[in-house]
Amino acid sequence: MATTITALGHAAFQVETGGKTILIDPFLTGNPLATVTADSIAADAILVTHGHSDHVGDTVEIAKRTKAVVVSNYEIVSWLQEQGVPNAHPMHIGGSHAFDFGTVKLTIAHHGSVLPDGTNGGNPTGIILKTEDGNIYFAGDTGLFLDMQLIGEENLAVAVLPIGDNFTMGPDDAVKATKLLKPTTVIPHHYDTWPLIAQDTAAWAKMTAAETSATPVVLGVGETHTL
Ligand code: NI
Ligand code: MN
Is the pTM of this model over 0.85? Predict the structure, then answer.
């Protein structure tokens, strides 16, 4: 069974791999782009990159209903447990852990991570999800950083990079990031949710195809890429 990535809007994605459903940053309620709802979506695992509300999103509600294991940094996991999340696994930057759905490794990200109620959410992270069909890097919210060169040694099938600018990298820095990461495929996220982060994805794709070895894949909401 192939591994697939489906865009849910903004920074939210659904990965199907080895018969498991993994949600990344499931911000659905209040997400202008979302076409699925928190009360019906399936999940075996939820991965949260950082504490901001447009990433933690509906994690608490979905985790309580589905009993999905939530994986995030130690501070965010502690907060989620206080909110009543029954199954959570703390990690931190640089650490890897093998789960039944694949191996997760947390990376650095340059951003903030305060939780919705003001609690300190530790440091923001990126996530490498290693599946039987290839390694997927979710950069989360971040600016460009040169250590992406090291992440590029992880043999990435897919890199999911922000291109919205203002709060994260914009399209030009996403192209520089792609050169450092050397993925087979690059998928943009964190754009067009609000006017402030509106982007010309066709222009980004053209620039990526011209300047990097990666194939740019723009996923509309509900669209799927197969590894
Ligand atoms: Ni953020
Ligand atoms: Mn964000």
Answer: yes
